[in-house]
Amino acid sequence: MNHYRLAGYAGLLGGALTLIAAARRAGLIPENSFTHALAPPATALLLLTLTAFYLVQRERAGRLGLTGFVLNHLGLSGLFAVEFLTHAVLQFQDAATREQVLTGPGRPYFVVVAFTFLTGVVLFGVASWRAGVLPRGAVALYVAGLSAAALRATVPEAVYLGGLVAGSAGVLWLSVALLSKPGGASVPDRDPGTVGLLGRRGVRHG
Q1: What share of the chain has pLDDT > 70, as a percent?
Q2: How far apart are CA 100 and CA 93, in angstroms?
Q3: Residues 16-46: b if buried by 16+ CB within 10 A, e if exposed
Q4: Rounded distance, CA 38 to CA 14, Å?
Q5: 67 burial class (0-12, 13-18, 19+ CB within 10 angstroms)?
Q6: For 154, phi and psi rounded to 5 degrees?
Q7: How would DSSP label each residue in 67-83?
Q8: Among 43, 98, 103, 151, which residue's beta carbon has the most beta carbons within 10 A?
Q9: Nearest to 127 by CA among 141, 109, 108, 143
Q10: Chain centre distance of CA 24
């Protein structure tokens, strides 16, 4: 299995787990230790998929794409730490302890993570839209949805959950695009004589 397909499957699983997390928060499925435990792996899987989203378009995305990828990756890594803390530690604490952690000395960390993630999502989305390698509709869902999710502390719960759903839809769509990529370890370049992902010119088959 080539690395794009592996990342595509990881994205499908991560996107599905994120939808489950949204359904749990909305009260559509039971809230228990098992459904809480599904949240951190979703973020971890998306780290792999995000790397593939960048690699498949890195030549066309340019420096803006690299900057967006780095910030997006750092923000997503921070969110993994937050998800792990929330679901593996804080859910077993009393309400007063949780409030102290979330609004006390730890709050600046959460703010920095959210801002880094938001900035990375927007920059990476702009670069991906300009590159035109990945489906632009999926990129739009990714940016709109995950931007709303990044603002979870400042927007209504419905907006946050809607963002999770839209962002997950974008991730699923982009992951399908990775799965449709023919060949093995191929990456984009500027050779006008080759055809690559989704029929775009400029991708060498490995």
Answers
A1: 87
A2: 11
A3: bbbbbbbbbbeeeeeeeeebbeebbebbbbb
A4: 9
A5: middle
A6: -120, 0
A7: HHHHHHHHHHHHHHHHH
A8: 43
A9: 143
A10: 19
Residue 33, Cα to own-chain centre: how many angstroms? 23
pLDDT tens for residues 47-70?
999 999 999 999 999 999 999 999
Sign of dihedral through CA atoms 86, 150, 15, 63? negative
C-beta of residue 128 within 8 angstroms of C-beta of residue 55: no
> Can you give the pLDDT at residue 2?
78
| Residue, of 145 and 81, whose pLDDT is higher | 145
Q: State mean pLDDT over 78-88.
A: 85
For residues 150 and 75, the answer to whether their CB atoms sit within 8 Å is yes
Q: Indicate if the pLDDT at residue 202 is higher than 70.
A: no
Amino acid at 182: P
Measured between alpha carbons, how far is residue 119 from residues 134, 147, 160 in Å?
Answer: 20, 9, 17
78: number of CA atoms within 13 Å, CB side? 21
CA distance 40 to 57: 27
